[in-house]
Amino acid sequence: MVSHEIHLKISQEGFDLDDLLPIVGEFGRYQKQLLWLVCLPACLPCGFCAFNQLFMADTPPHWCKVPGLEDMDVARRRRLAIPASQDDNETYSQCMRYDVDWTTMTTTTTTENYSVVTTYSSVPNASWFIVPCDHGWEYETSEITSSIVIDILINSYMLSFYILPFYIRYLAMLQFDLVCDRAIYPTIGLVALNTGGPIGVYLFGTLNDRIGRRISFFTCLATLIVGGFLTSISNNFWTWAFTRFIVGLTIPAIYQIPFIISLELVGPNYRSFVTVMTCTFYTMGLCMLAGVTYLIRDWRTLAITTSAPFLIYFFYWWFLPESPRWLLAKGRLSEANDILETLARVNGKELPVAFTQKLRQRMTMSRSTSEEERLRNGPGVLSLFKTPNMRLKTCLITLNWFANNMVYVGLSYYGPALGNEEHLSFLFSSLAEIPSYLACWIVMDRWGRRWPLCLCMVMAGASCIATVLLSPDAVMETLILFLISKSAISASFLIIYPFAGELYPTQLRGVAIGFSAYISGLGLIIIPFVTYLGRENLVLPLVILGAIAVIGGLSGLRLPETLHHRLPQTVEEGELFGKDWTCADFIRCVPTKYAPSSIAASYEDLSARETVEMHEVPIASSIMEEQQRLNAASVRRLVRQSSVMDTQRDSDGSMKMTYWF
């Protein structure tokens, strides 16, 4: 009966793929093959290229190069020419040396067989002047054999070496030496990477909406690979930073495009599962990166290894379909029909005749002038700030999202600095995310969004701040607290997406989420400087990130709960939603359940549109009961992003990449 009702809707009303997918298969063989063989593997490059830079810029122990002492062994040369720390005689300055003319500090004697022996003073004199390193540095390369901090390009990459201009070839003969007064440079490289993100999301988002998801994905992939190759042949820091900006243009767009294709082709009941799987594969990419960076210590080889293998993804050209939603929105109805017929055939289903007839009718239709005028005069970003309650909610959502973004990425950047082995620390940091995804899947549908979001962020912040109570040598304890905070912030990062989408009214949802997400993304430009503070004090960045997390988490308590509530559709309803917020609402931990008849089509439960229609389409009670029974038996719907993705559409029904950062 449910299938008959959906057939009736398609024949009598305007169609939507969410009405069609239950007939041709919400998650059949076609979607499974596409998900497991194409879309999920396509999520791996983002993690590789977002964090491989952390290992390219490793800084080994270093000290000043001292002319005149080249023949002396390293330990003795450092003990004689480099000032020792006042607290530890075994720790030497990395940026200062004694200002001594070593030719005047030697004693030359002649042995009986007429050989000359030169003897140096064995103990430094406290009266010697100390000066900054002015002849370069020496590096301890037993563990870190290559990085952009210490590397030199002599005659490698000969082709590029000879075709480059003379001044570039001159720079190619110099070490980077990004230490001491240039130690901030690797951090600037991270800023360049993160600056590319918001620009790339807009550029590739525009391409995605204009020329389609398929071509946009391969364009993004080509940009990433070219950026990785150019990184490997960079001759100086500023060239390297520019190539990282190019790579940054593709992050996170390279992840979002296959993610959107997956969500657009599966039914509402399975979007939560797809979301969890894409997050898991992204995390698997981070775990694989830990292994790759452990095996490959040369930064140029690492840049190639973490980008060139993704050339194999161009074979997806023959397998990755265009989004039928996008094709329908652009009027390419014949192509959309072909894809949907293939989907139905592979799933062992049949495309409804009514749907095909609707397609033929739509081929002759065009958007009316009145609709164009309505879209042009629709509400925009300023509508978020015109009324007090919407203004407050917008500020709180944006603040919370900003804190989530900063803390999550900041902890990810800081992971390798903790523990005794950076690759192992990064691996544990990545693995800590997976339990949080599963926990969110369960908790959000039971306890709502507000309190889980707050508790996760406060737990993450408290774990970070607690590191200040540990002694400086408590490395393992610091690592454990770090892993707790990373897992908690990962959980909250999943919650903020649907929570924000449910709080914003439908009329403003797309532009509002785009605004909050974009503002929060600007925090990624700041976060490298926060982690840079850890060079002087290991726990200082953790304390700063912890404070940000606590502030963001507590701010979320002022937001109204959305679980079991009718969600706002218009700007006016958005202003009224949560306006009568009371102290009782503040302390209520478990959301109040309302009678089903009073609940409008839920933003997080997309399939409820067939049960309780927003457009008030009458449905027989028996059909409603059957649909509710099917929904109850379906895979648990994790609300994260499934609902957000469903509402990030233009008026013609196409999902908008430009709404996402």
TrEMBL record:
What SUPFAM superfamilies does this protein's entry cite? Answer: MFS general substrate transporter
Q: Which InterPro entries match?
A: MFS_dom, MFS_sugar_transport-like, MFS_trans_sf
Q: Does the UniProt entry include the keyword Glycoprotein?
A: no
Which organism does this record belong to? Ooceraea biroi (Clonal raider ant)
Is Transmembrane helix found in the keyword set? yes
Q: What is this protein called?
A: Organic cation transporter
Per UniProt, what is the membrane topology?
Answer: Multi-pass membrane protein
What are the GO MF terms of this UniProt record? Answer: transmembrane transporter activity
